[in-house]
């Protein structure tokens, strides 16, 4: 494992279908043991239902109100909440508050961060609080997912 220091605002940052992900530590820095990602979700933001086949995930909510849906259970998670999910869990979450929600995501082993970097669009300080996803962003998210052991369940249009 390599020693690193990243300060507030530092790290590789991308927009993934409207949510902002900053890689604080990836497999390159941790010898593949884990990845740590800081994520910001605008009101209404969050990923579609999905399953990870390769890694366990854990979430620590720093700010905001998130509603997790995990294997048929609803979990309210506000600041200070810790949610751990085993690989194979069908889950998604949504920012149900009226301001951005921020959390730390830990995945073990590392690898998910490479997916975010591959499917995301580079973020900059000038972007503001949200960048709307395009249909191409969503297509790429779904198309690349199987290469990372991820199954995305895209909701049918109403």
From TrEMBL:
Q: What class of enzyme is it?
A: oxidoreductase
For whether the record's keyword set contains Lipoprotein, the answer is no
EC numbers for this chain:
1.13.11.24
**The UniProt record lists the keyword Oxidoreductase:** yes
Q: Which InterPro entries match?
A: Cupin_2, QDO-like, RmlC-like_jellyroll, RmlC_Cupin_sf
**What keywords would UniProt list here?**
Dioxygenase, Oxidoreductase
One GO molecular-function entry: quercetin 2,3-dioxygenase activity
User: Which PANTHER family does the record cross-reference, listed alphabetically?
Assistant: PUTATIVE (AFU_ORTHOLOGUE AFUA_8G07350)-RELATED
Name by which UniProt lists this protein: Quercetin 2,3-dioxygenase
Q: Which organism is it from?
A: Tautonia plasticadhaerens
**Higher taxonomy:** Bacteria, Pseudomonadati, Planctomycetota, Planctomycetia, Isosphaerales
Protein's gene:
qdoI
């Amino acid at each position: 494992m390599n020693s690193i220091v990243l300060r507030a605002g530092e790290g590789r940052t991308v927009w993934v279908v409207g949510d902002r992900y900053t890689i604080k530590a990836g497999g390159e820095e941790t010898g593949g043991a884990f990845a740590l990602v800081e994520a910001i979700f605008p009101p209404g933001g969050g990923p579609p239902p999905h399953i990870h086949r390769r890694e366990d995930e854990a979430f620590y909510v720093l700010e905001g109100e998130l509603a997790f849906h995990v294997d048929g259970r609803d979990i309210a998670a506000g600041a200070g909440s810790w949610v751990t999910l085993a690989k194979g869990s069908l889950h998604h979450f949504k920012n149900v508050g009226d301001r951005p929600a921020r959390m730390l995501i830990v995945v073990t082993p590392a690898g998910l961060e490479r997916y975010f970097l591959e499917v995301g669009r580079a973020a900059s300080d000038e972007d503001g609080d949200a960048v709307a996803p395009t249909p191409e962003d969503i297509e790429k998210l779904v198309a690349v997912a199987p290469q990372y052991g991820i199954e995305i369940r895209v909701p049918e249009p109403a």
